[in-house]
Amino acid sequence: MSEPLAIVVNGVSGRMGRMLVEVINASDKARVCGALERPGHAWVGKDLGEMLGGTATSVIVGEDPAQVLKGAQAVIDFTAPAATVALARTAAQMGVAHIIGTTGFTPAHLAELQEIAQAGVIVRAGNMSLGVNLLTALTRKVAEALDSDYDIEIIEGHHRHKVDAPSGTALMLGEAAAEGRGVSLEDHAVRARDGITGAREKGSIGFAVVRGGDIIGEHDVMFAADGERLILRHIASDRAVFARGALKAALWAQGREAGEYDMMAVLGL
To answer: Which amino acids does the record list as binding (S)-2,3,4,5-tetrahydrodipicolinate (predicted)?
Structure first.
């Protein structure tokens, strides 16, 4: 049997970081070889196992990516856009595959990642679950089949702590709908409505956002016409689906040529 894949988890103290450690440790195909936190974080210099409420391990939480990534084959990153872009440069320089679940990127961030991917392997997705990526493929197909008499609305819900809106998944679904229609999402998206907005513009792609409680992730894509509505829906009830998808991406990324990939490529969709 081949050696387990050596993976570093960035943002290890967060909800997704903890879940990633749990999922990786439960796998016989990978192991956590390192853990990263932002400089000055209370976990830096501490044993990861103890910080997670268990027994001591040989993994000490670090703050210097160049040190922590030594010997790693992949790093999984669900953190913040600026931190992710900075880490991407180090990972590419060190030949470490960078699996990115971070959302909220600006166009400038995305341009930087595209440039970095010329020298390293990046797998980036607004959502890494199998179900959501199937939903994305279905959204593209349905948008292609139905004309602009069907209004498209994307409704997403997340927990009260999420800081970006619409979610990366909602934007991914919006891009799929726009591609199916053969239009630019940037030119057709309506991200907010307030006050006297006037009638809906034909062909627009609307977004609605819910934030509250502990909602892990809920996404609907509605195609609404006179007399009927078609609704495609995905509900995540456990963050482990995202962690399992990220692990699958890390395994898939090994041996790939430099470039930026998505989960559709990982899943063969």
So the answer is: 159, 168-169
